Structures are given as structure tokens and as C-alpha cells.
Amino acid sequence: MSSVPRFWRNLGSRYNLEGTHCKECGEFFYPPRNICVNCRRTGELESFKFKGTGEIISYTLIHTAAEGFEGQAPYTLAIIKLDEGPRLTSQVVGDPDKIQIGTRVRSVFRKLGEDGDRGMIYYGTKFVPVDA
Amino acid sequence: MRDVAIIGVKNTKFGELWERSLRDIVVEAGIGAIEDAGVSGKDIDALYIGNMSGGRFVEQEHIGALIADYSGLSRNLHVPATRVEAACASGGLSLRQAIMTVASGYSDIVVAAGAEKMTDVGSEEASSALAAAADREWEGMAGATFPGLYAMIAKLHMHRYGTTSEQLAEVAVKNHKNGCLNPIAQYKNEISVDDVLKSIMVADPLHIFDCSPITDGASALVLAPAEIAHKYTDTPIYIEATAQASDTIALHDRRDITTLDATVMAAKRAYSMAKLTPEDIDLVEVHDCFTIAEICAIEDLGFAEKGKGGIVTANGETAIGGRIPVNTSGGLKACGHPVGATGIKQAVEIVTQLRGDAGKRQVAGAEYGMTHNVGGSGATAVVHIFSRER
Ligand SMILES: [Zn+2]
């Protein structure tokens, strides 16, 4: 599904929803950024841990899986807006029929995928409906 | 800056060309275009080639040099050759680089080509290579696929504007109808709305017939300064505008995922450069990698009110003979989508139409045409406007 170094160097963000916050304009970033898109080099970014609650902006049920996700199909992929503002792409676990645009969700720690050959299993953040 | 004209064009056949290599098809397109222009190798000052993923599809990088070599432009002529990469917008940007090189005065006769050989790998490997045009670390690692990203655009478009699966299907139906009239098209079969809706679901709400195929193909154009274009051809086609814009690589970071702001901005720059409005454009080739992409494109380019792209399509306004014919070539959907070639093929179609050479798919009296080529889910957009008269 991906290279091990690329996965591990973002471990803090993947496991703990760590992003960044611009002290200058106040915008939050997840995934983390080193340069604020508004203030650019005049902004000062600090590390920030998100609460992990938000709502679904849009979603799809993926039938033809991405490489490394074959065993999970069909799975729900969504764009989620965290309450602090930033949006991210993540899987939503649970009954696809209970998922809609606007559904409130919270983050959970789950298996993300695996490399077929080496058997490397990746863990990280997924989301579940708050009511589930 | 100098005005620029297109003096030669050529597409190869688009499809599953298993018996042919990347270099074979580019040479066919390149030679075809320079014969069409009536120039010879020694006249060529520079070559650009749009290619997205030679390293993945045929395990060949250094495509610029490869193509120059096999076109006979290297050993004795040493023509500068540059590969241009911007995912599925590689071809459009190859054209844009060529235009800027001629306009600047650095070069006179320049070839802009585009090519992709996608069927030398299996469809899984091809999908994986295409997924690299999105944000691998923050979309791909979550399980996103390209159809999945466009499916999320479609889902919100349907939720917000009432667009239906039937309206999406109408895009595919129209483009297959047009493809039947195009000798180079990958698919020359008509399909119905029902066929689309009954085809396999790839990523809800997109069925397999909502998606463009895996295709081999190459296309080429020859450019010259406008003031000498008549030396080569009776029907030079002029560049009225070239414009490009970027947006966030990840779909989730966009202002509004149902609008490709890169398209809106590139179109705005192009209309301004050409001093034209959407009403002046007679036909357009848009980037319909998925049916929803054509709906968004006609809205973002100003041919339909925001949210009305589906209705406009279902009404037949984008058909040949309609108010604004869209994708007379069959589009990416039916003509095929060899990713690096697409932006050049779009320009070849517009030139063919403006010359009046499009046969059964001819848009009568076409004066102004536009192309719209997108990379990824909208991180790059490039728009060109062409005219028959100066
Ligand atoms: Zn800032």
C-alpha cells in the first residue's frame, strides 16, 4: 500500500491526529503544514492535537479498492471537517446506510491497510458516527 | 510577445494498442503532424512532450530524449526536447510550454506532443499509477482511489443541487454518440442511460461507465509564429489564450469540492487574455475523466449556471447541434484517455473543427474553440482558446 518510511514519519499525526495551528491568523491544519497558506512565511506554526470530532462533508462507498485495501471493500471513504476547521480524507467504519452528508463523527484507532507481500499492517485514524 | 498559430496536427488511433510501443505511437503522431504542416526535421527548433507516468507504465523515464531520438531529431539535429508532467494535464501543459516558447521569440517551429502507453501494465498497476496524481500520503494512504475522489464530488453535487445519476449517465451517452463519429476513438458504440446505471458500481454513485478507460495513444501539434503560418498552411488556427492555474493537491483542502477553482481561475485568465466570453465560444473539449467532471467543467467554464450542469446536459444543450457542443471527439470517456496525450488530443480536435475538417461531427461555422485539461482531482487546470480568423 505504501512505503514504510513514508508512513512512519507521519506517525504522530496518523496515530494522534496531530496537526498544526498558525498563531498569526489562527487557522488550523491537518494534515500538518510547515508554512501557513494564509500568512506564508510571516505565520508562526505550533503543533496542535485535534479533538477528533467533526462532520461528514461528502462520502462514497468504494467497491473497487485501492491497492492494499482489497480485503476491506466495500468501504466508506469520506471528507470530514474537524470541529476546529480543517478537513481530511478518512474511512468511516460502520453501517454505510447510516452515513450521510452532515453525519457527526469521532475518530477511532483502527487498522488502515496492509502490504500484501511483506504483511506490514498499518494502523491509524478512522472515524465512526458519534451515535454508533 | 508574438502571436502563435497551429500549422499541423495528428492523432494516432486511441485504444488498447498492445502491439505497439510508446516510441512507435509518438513517432507516428509526430511525423503525421509535421507532414500535415509541411515542415521537415531540420525546421524544428524545439520539442515538448506531455507524459504523466512513463516510469510506471513502461518503466522508461527521460521521455523527452527518447522521443527526440526516435523521431530522428537527436543524432544530427540535436533538437532540444523536454518532457512536461502535470498528471493528466501533462499534454495541455506541453502545448502551453510550446506556445510560450514560440511567443517569446526563442523558437519558431515547435512540436508539442503528448503520449501515454497504459496497457503494458495490468489495470491494477495502472490504477495505482494514476492514484499518484492525488495526495499519496493523505488521500491514498486512507484508501482513496481516483474514482473515489470524483465520487465524493458527485455525491455533494447531487446533495446540494439535485443532480441525478441519470444526468451523469447522459454525459457518457452523449460522448459515446460523438465517439461513434470519430475514426480514432477507442469506443465506437452507443450506450444508453440504462446501460450506465446497470454497469458495475466502482465508487458510489459512479459506475464503471461513468469512468474514462485505460488507453494507449499519442497526439502532436506543430506551432509557428502567426506571421509566417500562411507559408505552411492555408488554414492556420490561432492561439487566442493560454492559461493555467493550480489548487491544493488534496481534494479535502479545497474551498468547495463541487467547484474546481483551478478551472475557474484558468478560464477567467483565458477569457480575459482572449477578450472573449463563454457566449463567444462555439465548442469545447473538457476534461471528462468521470461524468461528474464534465458537469463541473461546463459550470466552472461558464457554459452552465452553477448546479445546472446536469440539466443542461440532459436537455441536449451540449450535444453536437446544441447551444455549446462539448467533447465532439467523444471526450476522455469514449475517445479514450491516454493521460499524457489528452490535452494535445483536445487541441487536435478543436483545430480539426475550426478547419472545417471534422466530417460527420463537424460543428457548423465554428469560429472559436476551447480546451480544458485537468491534472489530478483539480490541482492543475489548463485552458486554451483557439480561433479560425485572426
Ligand atoms: Zn496564518
Automatic annotation (TrEMBL), chain A:
Residues 51-110 form the ChsH2 C-terminal OB-fold domain. InterPro entries: ChsH2_C, ChsH2_Znr, NA-bd_OB-fold, Thioester_dehydratase-like. Residues 12-42 form the ChsH2 rubredoxin-like zinc ribbon domain. Keywords: Acyltransferase, Transferase. This is Conserved protein associated with acetyl-CoA C-acyltransferase. Gene3D superfamilies: 6.10.30.10. GO terms for molecular function: acyltransferase activity. It comes from the Archaea. It comes from Methanosarcina horonobensis HB-1 = JCM 15518.
Automatic annotation (TrEMBL), chain B:
Residues 243-388 form the Thiolase C-terminal domain. One of its GO terms (molecular function) is acyltransferase activity, transferring groups other than amino-acyl groups. Residues 4-226 form the Thiolase N-terminal domain. Keywords: Isoprene biosynthesis. GO terms for biological process: isoprenoid biosynthetic process. Transmembrane segments: none annotated. Pfam families: Thiolase_C_1 (PF22691), Thiolase_N (PF00108). This is Beta-ketoacyl synthase/thiolase. It comes from Methanosarcina horonobensis HB-1 = JCM 15518.
